[in-house]
Structure formats: C-alpha cells, structure tokens
Amino acid sequence: MRKKKLVNLFLVIIFITAKAQNIDMKYAAYAGKSYMFVIFQGDQQKTIYKGKVPANGKFTLSIPKEYTPYNGMARWLITGTMEGGGLDMYIPGKDFSAGLAEDNMPIEKSTFQTNNTAFTEMGDLFREQSKILSRYEAMQQTVKAFTADDANYPLFQQEYQKQIKAYNNLHQGLKAKPDYINRFLQIVNITKGISNQLTENEQDAAQNTYQYITNELDWPTLYTSGHWSTVINTWLSIHTQLIKKPEQFAEDFRKISNKITSPVIYTNLAKTMAHYLSQQGQDEYIGAIAPIIKESGKVSQYDDELSAYTKATVGSKAPDLIIPQQETNNKKQSNKTQILKIADKTYQQTLLFFYQSTDCKTCDLQLQELSSNYQMLTAKGVRVITISADKEKALYTSKSKAFPWKDAFCDYKGEKGENFKNYSVTGVPTLILVDSDGNILSRGASISF
C-alpha cells in the first residue's frame, strides 16, 4: 500500500513539473539588482515574482500554476534604481529563455530569446507596419503639396496608392493568420489611434475601430495584452460620444457577451465598463446592458462597481434613504438614523442629487442650475433631495445652507455611505429621477431644465 502511494505521489510530481512554465533568464549586466515580474490580467498587473538578479545573471521565472499555460504579455522590471530598466515579453504558453547577447549593450538592443520565435516576428511585424505608415504619410503630404498638373504628380499619386494597398495587404494577412502576435498588433493600433484601414476621415477611422472591437476583437488576447482598459474605454467613448444610441450599445454588447465564454474575463469586462460609464455619468448605458449581464450567468457576485447592474437601475424601485439624526440639544451627529420614503404621492416626481463639495466643478455647476430652477421644479410637483459625499461637517454646512430646498443630507462617510452604496453611485454628480410610486425613471450626470 505504501509503495502504491509513493508511486502515485511520484506521478503527481511528474505531472506538476511537466505543467510548469519557466523562463530562463540571463542578465549579468543587472547582477545584484532587484526586479519584479508581472503578467497582465484584464485591468490588473499581477506581480507574480520578486527577486534579485544573482552574480552570474542566471535565474528562472516561473508562471504560477493558476495562470498556466500563460499565453500573453508580461513585463520584467528592474526596481529600486534611478536608471530602471526591464523588458516587455510575449509569453508563448511554453518554456523559453531570454538574455543579453552583449552585457554592456542596452537591454532593448541586445536581448535575444530562444524557443520563442514570436519575439522576432513581433518586432518584424511592427517595423513593417511602421515603414508603410511612414511612406504613406510622406506621400500623403506630397500629394497635397503638388497639383494635378505637376509633371511628377502621377508618380506621387501612384506611390500613395501603393502604400494604401500595402497596408491593406498587411492587415488582410493579419486576419488570415489570427495568432496572438497578429491580434496583438491590432490591439496596440487601437491604443495609438491607428485604424485597420487607412483613411483621412477621423469619423471613418473611429467607425473602423468600432467595427473591429465589436465584431472581430479576440477578448482573451486583449485580457493578457496590457491594453485592456484603454481599448474598452475607446469603444465606450465611440458609443457615448459619436453613436449616442443606448439601444445600439446594448445590441453590440450582446454580440460581445455571446463571444466571451470565460466568466473571469466576462466579469472583468462588466466591471471595467461599469467603472468608466459611471465616471462619465452614462448610467443609461449601464441600464441598457444590465439585463444582458444578469441573464448571462457569468457574473457570480455583484459587488463594488458591479453593483451598478443590480442596484437602483432605471425601471427598478428606488431604495429609501437612510438619514442620520442630530441630537436636538447640542446639534451633534448621533448614531441614530431614520428612513426617508422615496415613494410619495405628495409629489409628482423626486429628484435625487448625489454630489460632493470639493474637486467637482460639474457638481457646483449642476447645483447652481438646480437652485436657479428650483421654483420651477416645485411648481411642477418635483421634490429635490441632495445627498453629499462630504466628510467634513463645516464644508458640507457652508455649501448646503444656501440651498433653497429643505431635504439636504450628509452622513460624512463619503461615497462609502449607505445611500451611495444603495444607489450604486460611484461617481459624482449623479442625478436620479423617481416617480411618485418610487420607480426610477432616469439616471445621469446632468439634468435638462
């Protein structure tokens, strides 16, 4: 029996060893330097190893088993020094080695990698595109500088069209061979504002980028690219600033939602979108995709930014407010609270305004607008309630004493206060309009009078 257990243990050790993913490093030029090794997981850089380069410069970086086989970008950084240094690496899902061909050369000029041909392929691909773009831009300026009756104009125009064709051929090749390196180039292009089709029209370029992200982007590649947040924010900006159709946004998101099978990647996507949309005051867009996210079954816990999809969305019931009470004698804040009902037939509608007094110019402008139009609102049967994220009583009092409405509250807990959490307010200003039955009619960062 004991022998059998030892054999089983031996097999387990062999299995784990076989699954290990190692990078053998040789960087004697950095002997004695501290370093850290990170991989990219959506909006996070995961530090998976810290150490010090030994005297002979040889050491091994191992990818933790929960990430193996890792196929994506990583960053090895020298830390604790003024000169810094380091290396961006593509990890191809297998073992490889990296080092300096010449110890006295800069790392970016002398690094070699073995058993990782993609390292060379990536450099060649970026250089090829850079050459085409440089020639294209040069001929673009030349064509503009000369008129059609110039003797050399046909040659300039011919070369200009040649570079357009070369660029299109390059990107057709990327689609024909959709490996990590080819997909990574297109992701980097998005972060640089480079379209997959050459055009002088910015709206056409934005449309091309939007179409690529919606229909062609490989989300697992983006997840490990180090460009997760930038690409998602680009897509959101195109939707909220150019397309401006929440229903189209929901339709496009459903396409993306159906393509992502990993709950981890999907949850990170939902979280990142909630973060940026909340910052921009685009609560209508959050509400548009909330049903899709909830029905997907890929998000297991709706906390922090993810609570935006479940709490106080448009069409849902507005939570009652938790109001701190004051001691009647000394006017000090007590730990006692009372409930303020939002559903109230006395009013036609209730406008909830979440704000803070410092570092929010938009809040100040909206409060001024609200004050100026308060009589008009009351005439229409609208109740105004403001909830502050201030943490200092003096600051809150100096601002709120000028309000013409009586329902102004603050618990001095900032955005961690119960009302902010219950309404899933992650950015200010946030304005929420509720009907007399307590149904949320709209959310946003501004109101039109």
Can you offer a commentary on this structure?
The protein is an alpha+beta fold. It is built from 15 helices and 15 strands. A five-stranded mixed sheet has the order 13-12-11-14-15. Strands 4-1-7-8 form a four-stranded mixed sheet. A hairpin with a 4-residue loop joins strand 14 and strand 15. Helix 6 crosses helix 8. It is globular and about 75 Å long. The chain starts with a helix and ends in a 5-residue tail after the last strand. The N terminus is likely disordered.
For this entry, give a set of tags.
22% strand, globular, 449 residues
Concise description?
The protein contains 15 helices and 15 strands.
Could you outline the blueprint of secondary structure elements for this entry?
Layout: H1 2-19, E1 21-26, E2 34-41, E3 44-52, E4 58-63, E5 71-79, E6 86-92, E7 96-100, H2 107-110, E8 111-114, H3 118-145, H4 153-176, H5 180-191, H6 202-215, H7 219-223, H8 228-243, H9 246-259, H10 263-279, H11 283-296, E9 321-326, E10 333-340, E11 349-355, H12 361-372, H13 374-379, E12 382-388, H14 393-400, E13 407-410, H15 418-422, E14 430-435, E15 440-444
Parallel strand pairs: 1-7, 11-12, 12-13
Antiparallel strand pairs: 1-4, 2-3, 2-5, 5-6, 7-8, 9-10, 11-14, 14-15
Structural Rg: 29 Å
Largest sheet: 5 strands, mixed
How many β-strands, per DSSP? 15
Q: What is the typical, i.e. mean, pLDDT?
A: 90
Overall, the morphology is globular
Spell the H/E element sequence.
HEEEEEEEHEHHHHHHHHHEEEHHEHEHEE
Straight-line distance between termini: 82 Å
Secondary-structure class: alpha+beta
Report the uncertain regions.
1-18
